[in-house]
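Training component of the fellowship. As part of building independent skills, the fellow (R.M.) carried out the full modelling exercise for a liganded target. The chosen ligand was S-adenosylmethionine. The inputs are recorded below so that the supervisory panel can assess the work.
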Amino acid sequence: MMKKDEINRYPDIPGWLADEEGELLYRLAMECKDGEIVEIGSWKGKSTVWLAEGSRAGRGLKIHAIDPHKGYDGKSTLKEFKDNIARAGVGGMIIPVVKTSEEAAKGFSKPVGLIFIDGSHEYNDVKKDFELWFPRLVDGGVMAFHDTLGYDGPRRLVNELVYKSRSFRNVRLVNNITYAVKAENTFPDRLRNRLSLLIKRLREMAIRKKG
Ligand SMILES: C[S@@+](CC[C@H](N)C(=O)[O-])C[C@H]1O[C@@H](n2cnc3c(N)ncnc32)[C@H](O)[C@@H]1O
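Fellow's submitted model of the complex:
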């Protein structure tokens, strides 16, 4: 496995991903054995590069990087995305899919082993991402969501549909990413997931207090 300073060779790619979160994505991609690796919401490629670096250290699975690239200011982010992944030396590992999550899901028939969801943060949109992609995830595959502490949409979605679900084991929070393994869970699994949710809610309260 590469050392931390070797992995994060392009800290100048803009984005909101913390190094700790990037290292998590690297590890999850490296450990992904079955199925495709999918990212919803790539923006300028920061998280995509971490996923690609991790996958390269593992099975070398390509990353389907799904984003309509319309840009927050109406200016396309596609060129900057492509330049950044090429500069990071992982262009060949990434399949840019210039579509919304919904459009991409329609033509996607392969099973998914890892999915990182960081697209629209509106509750109904994250829920749609969940509903579209959960059935495509293999048993034992991992679903990860960004911004699950401070942003209401992803925060509520994972609290309702991941931490309390009967279909996930080992729900964890690293910085702002909640991730979990898809698997029918047992009563002790559910207790552990509920304890993790309790701890997460304490962190949410602390964030709200800070204002
Ligand atoms: C927070 S940014 C992603 C940041 C990126 N993951 C990173 O670490 O730098 C959100 C991205 O989601 C994209 N997006 C918004 N709605 C989407 C949708 N329905 N499907 C796919 N991507 C979407 C936006 O175009 C934007 O580039």
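The panel noted the following from the submitted structure. The chain has eight helices and seven strands. The chain has one domain: 14-210.
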